[in-house]
Amino acid sequence: LGGRIKIFLIFAAQIMDQQTLKREYRFEGRGLHTGKYAHLELCPAPENHGIRFYRRDVGQEIPALATKVSRTDRSTTITENGVSVVTIEHLLSALTGLGVDNARIILDNEE
Fold this sequence. Notes:
The structure is a single chain. The chain is of the alpha+beta class. It has helices spanning 2-16, 89-97; strands spanning 25-30, 37-44, 51-55, 60-63, 69-71, 77-80, 83-86, 103-107. The chain has a five-stranded mixed sheet with strand order 1-2-8-3-4, with no helix packed on it. The radius of gyration is 17 Å and the shape is globular.
């Protein structure tokens, strides 16, 4: 039984390791729903940072938390202090699928 517990603890410790991006990635283009042009940077972030969006155009950070969801019609919107980021669901899904726990997402528009 002792060996099984040791293997479980090693496995659990591996699951709990946090991951971030190896480097920055930059994208630009028009938003799917708003049609507004935007620049987006995916940046590595330190442990326990979580995934957070930063609206450079207005200086507002918005954590990607369920408690920040303000709309779900057609896309997912998160809002903090009246500032929103729209259509985040596909990017968050991709980061989750890659096992990324910590990232800073900088953009200069709402979508």
